[in-house]
Amino acid sequence: GDEVDHVPSIAAAAKPWRGDAAGYRSATGSDFTLDSLLTVPAAIGVTESALPAATSGRLDRSAPLRVRLADTLQSVSDAQLLAGANRVAVAMPGSDDWEVFQFQTATLVADDLWDVSLRLRGQVGTDHLAANELPPGAIFVLLNDALVDSSLAPNQRGISQVWRVGAASRSVSDASYTETNRAFAGVGLRPYAPVHLRGALD
To answer: Three-state DSSP class for 94?
Structure first.
């Protein structure tokens, strides 16, 4: 709710976490500039079951979503859920179509293996994505204070950039850095879909 609408959010995780992580970007693949500094590891996992299609605006009581995640998840009350707790973004690797949903119940079924159920799907304008089944292998990111907004300028929206993320204590040229080429459309600028439409013949 308080994110900068046109920029992507950045999350990083490592086991063990060896201090701050840094995100760099470059338009050419050289002369990287520091984009963001991440001081807290994010909870990032991978789904091991399909997330079935569902309708937004109502509680999804279908089968639990199984997630491999080396962090702790918490179940919440009805009131906490409706107040915005347990927000998650999921997408297939490399996709820009991130669905945001919330979950009420988290059950640890084995080491680093969780079942999340009683979900509110298609939150904050992603209701169109909830209508499609998401196969196993999707990236699962808990949306909390560990995420940092990019410093991408408005005029750089939609322009491909080379991004590198790694340990802030090491040089951006270090082989341990993860690199990807991505452009971001600024989907936070999109208005929500109209609701409760009515029509009449004249």
So the answer is: coil
Note the residue count of the chain. Answer: 202
- Taking Cα atoms as reference points, which of 4, 2, 1 lies closest to residue 149? 4
The Cα–Cα gap between 55 and 106 comes to 21
- The two tokens of residue 171 are 């040089």
CA 164 to chain centre: 18
- Secondary structure (DSSP) of 4-73: -TTS-EE----SS--S-EEEEEESSSSS-EEEEEE-S---EEEESS-B----TTSEE-SSPEEEE-SS--
List, for residues 1-18, the tens digit of each pLDDT value.
677 889 999 999 988 898
pTM of the model: 0.89
Quote the pLDDT of residue 1.
67
Mean pLDDT, residues 143-159 taken together: 93
Q: What is d(CA 25, CA 151) in angstroms, rounded to the nearest whole number? A: 10
- DSSP assignment string, 103-150: EEEEEEEETTEEEEEEEE-S-TT-HHHHTS-B-SS-EEEE-STT-EE-
